[in-house]
Structure formats: structure tokens, C-alpha cells
Amino acid sequence: MRMGFFTDTSICIGCKACEVACKEWNDVPDDGLNFLGTSYDNTGGLGADTWRHVAFIEQPVSVPAIGDSGIRWLMSSDVCKHCTHAACLDVCPTGALFRTEFDTVVVQQDVCNGCGYCVPACPFGVIDKRESDGRVWKCTLCYDRLKSDMEPACAKACPTQSIQFGPLDELRERAAGRLGVLRDAGVADARLYGADESDGVGGFGAFFLLLDEPEVYGLPPDPVVTTRDLPRMWKAAAGAALALVGAVAAACARPR
Amino acid sequence: MSSYYGHPVVKAPVWKPVIALYFFTGGLAGASSTLGCAARLAGNRRLARAALLASAAGVAASGPLLVADLGRPARFLNMLRVAKPSSPMSVGSWILAAFAPASLVAAACDLTRLAPRLGGAATTAAGALGPAVATYTAVLVADTAIPAWHDAHRELPFLFAGSSLASAAGTALAFTATADAGPARRLAVVCAALEVASFRAMKHRLGEVAGPYKDGRAGRLAKAAEACTALGALVVVTAGRRRPEAVVAGGLLCAGSLLTRFSVFRAGFESAADPAATIVPQRRRVTSSGTVSP
After folding, report:
1. What is the pLDDT of residues A59-96, one digit of tens each?
2. Which CATH number fits domain B18-275: 1.20.1050.90, 3.60.15.10, 1.20.1630.10, 1.10.10.60?
3. Which pTM value belongs to this model?
4. How far is CA B115 from CA A21, B109, B201, B222, B240, in A?
5. What angle separates helix A230-252 from helix B116-142, to the nearest 10 degrees?
6. Residues 118-177 of B with CB under 8 A from A
7. pLDDT tens-digit profile of A121-137?
8. Class of domain A3-224
């Protein structure tokens, strides 16, 4: 059965318990004690040593009722999307990246040779190389915990159920219901991100409810798996190869 | 345009500049094998020898460059653990696994005059695989989420084919006696034109995503590449039959080819670092189709 995450950012309180639980369970190295000056976010984005990343956005809003302006908080815990059509998996030349029985995408660390092809292939910039180690790392959706019928560490630690784990079908139903509730309550900007199977990556295994456009959270508005265009690329390469042969043949038609 | 504190959306590659150097050495090897095979078929043994040796030299340089860039070099053989058509790097690894021994055997047999039938078969095999070796790297970089690479997937293979041929013709020109270098001279002019024209067409069609190829470090590399290639072709046309000039022309063509690879390589990093390159075209798609968010 396909398992996944529904991250409902409308109830995220920015506690970062997910980040900590992920690090603790998966033994992820520290990602630097940095002060980035980007609100409460000091990890910046997902990477080899950051598998859950809480984004903090302080958005100026006007509140006409009290004739004043203020700030609204957007907080969102980002994670690997475990795409239906996963570019990282498609381009991996060693087979280190594979799709599990839960339809999640995981790196086999005993196979990865650190070629780095998956890094620029991911349309979300999720997977990255750990320089101290030479291999690539990302969220495994706690493959080991799933194997033991436990929920992933981040979902377990989330105090507000902003991170929900379960069978993807159920999560999508629940998300549609939640979106309806929010819309009815007048939250016009609420939207689901990655719940649609017709999108460029065939839908996410880990999708989101957002309160603004995806790019506000650092997410691409219309991600497409790069291998969708691979047949066209090989066709162009075949044309170029033919041109190469033609040029050589024409040049060598006279021997001297 | 909105973004998250101006952070990039996609990750820049983790490849070191040795990979750009490999694009050059691999391209030189691939195109030289095809040139060597054709020259041999046409009965031009001296030109064939120069090209076959250039191919072997390119192959010998390429292997270490590729292994050196791996995070776990000792696991380089994992590249042949599976055969995956969806991964241009897997396809390329298998092509190289067949091409590299063929190229080395072809050069060794030609040089030693031993085993002529084996040498002939190896020359044919390497010559047939050469165009794939010279162009698959274009598919490899295009098959990423980096806008300046992915969106250039139509022109990049032609640019890489032209660049590979320019280096092969240039090298053959430099190492072949004037009387036998006619095919290399003709080839040099044609492929210099292909290299310059496809780079220009690429920059033109890419529109707003072409920024890195025009400005900054990658842009300067692109301008230098075009200047070297054009000048090399000019020297071939005007003075290619004189020996020192032919060597200079060959050097210029190789320099142009190398600079082209470094320009494309560098442009990918700059494109990845720019959130607008990823977000703006995607936002426009969403807005015009009206399918996703409001």
C-alpha cells in the first residue's frame, strides 16, 4: 500500500520537533549552528543533513477591521516529496535509489557511489551529497520504522498533527475535507500542493496544504520530472550524432 | 516574483570542474574515433593514425577524471551494476565500457602494426560508438531540473557534437602532415560553424533562461569559446596548408571546444542558483493553464 505524508501547514506551530525527531531517529549529522537572519529558520532548506525543514515566513498583512497592519506567520515543515515519477530514481545509474514496497523512494547507502546525478535532477532540490561521506542522503520516510509498523519519527513527534502519516488515499480524502473546512471558514488562499496525480511528477507521496503560493515557501509552482522529456533529448542526440557522421563522411570523401 | 528569502529552488550540481574537462576529453575521443575510422576507410592512413591516437589519449584521460569525481571512487564499478535506459549516466557508462577498450585496441594495433584484423574491427567498433560518446553527455546535463540545461535539450547535443568534432579535427590537423590533412581542414570549418551556430541558436531560443550563457563567468567563457573557434576556422581557411599555422589553428579549435564545455558547465551552476530561472517560467505555465493554485 502506498504510504505518505499529508503536511497541513495551517496548523504548524513552527516548533521544529519534526526536525529534531528526524535527526535523532536517523542519526543525521548537524547541519551547522548558523544564524541565517531568515526569521526563525536557521537551517535554510532541505539537504543531505536536513531531512525535515521548517520554513518561517513573516508576511505583512493589513487588518482593515482595526485599521492597522500586522504580520501573519506562515510555517511549513518541508520534506522529500517521494514523487510518483521521481527524477532522482530515474537518473540514478547504480540502482542505489529504489522504490520500496510502500511506494517511497529510498537511497541504498551500501550501493551509492556518490556520482551526484540525482542532486540536480530533483525538481525540489531535496537530495544532496554529504561531502564528509561522499554519498547522497535524504528522507527515507523512516523506512526502518515502516518495516516495524511504526509511523515516521517526524509524524510521531508532531504535537499538532500538522504532519499526518498514513495510506496516501486516506490522506488525500482527509486533505480534501480539511481544505473544504478552511475555504468555508473564509481562508481563500488555502490550497493543496502535490495532491493532484495529473501534475508534472504524477503527484507527491508527501503532499501539503499551503496558505499561499508554493514559491513563497521555496517550492516550485509547477515541478516536472525531467525524464518526461528524455525521449525528445535522445532524438535530438540521434540527430546530432547523424550530423557528426555526415560531416566526417563528407570531409573524408576525398582522401587527401 | 515571490521566493523564500531568495533561496534557490533546485540544487546546483556537486560535480567538480573535472567533469567539464571530461566532456572535452570524451568528446575528443568519440569524434576522433569516427574520424579515424572514416580516414582509414578512405585510405588515408596517416590521418587515421593521428585520429586513433587522439581518441586513445582522450579515453585514457577520461577514465581517471570520471572516477575522481565520484564521492566513493572505489565503487566506480557500481556504474555497471544495472543497465537503466532512464539514466543517461547509466547509458553512457555502458557505451564507454564498450567504446574505451575498442579505442585503445584500435590505437595499439595501428601503432604496433600487430593484429591488423583485430585492429580493423576495433577501429570500426570505436568509430561506430564515437558519435554516441560525443553526444550522450549533452543528454546527461539536459536531463536535470536545471533550467539552463534542461530547456536547452534540443540544441545541446548539436553543440556538443560540433564541439567534439572541432577538437577532433583540430587535434588531427595539428598532428598530421599538410598533404594528408585535407579532410581535417574541411571538417574543421564545418564543425566550427556547427558549434558556433548551435550555441547561438540555443541562446536565442532559451530566452530569459539563457542569462548565464550571456552574462557573468559562463557568459565570458562562451564569448571566449566563440572567438577561439571562429579564429581557428579562419586560420584553417586562410593558412591551413602551412604547417605552423595548422598547429595554431588546431590549438585554437581545441581551446574553443574546451571553453564551450566549461561555459555550459558553469552556466548550470549559475542557473541553479537563481530562483527566478526556476520559478518564473513555472509560474507562467500555471497561470496560463489555470489548473493549479489560484
Report:
1. 988 777 776 778 899 999 999 999 999 999 999 999 99
2. 1.20.1630.10
3. 0.96
4. 65, 6, 46, 44, 35
5. 140
6. 130-132, 134-136, 138-140, 142-146, 149-150, 153-158, 160-161, 164-165, 169
7. 999 999 999 999 999 99
8. alpha beta
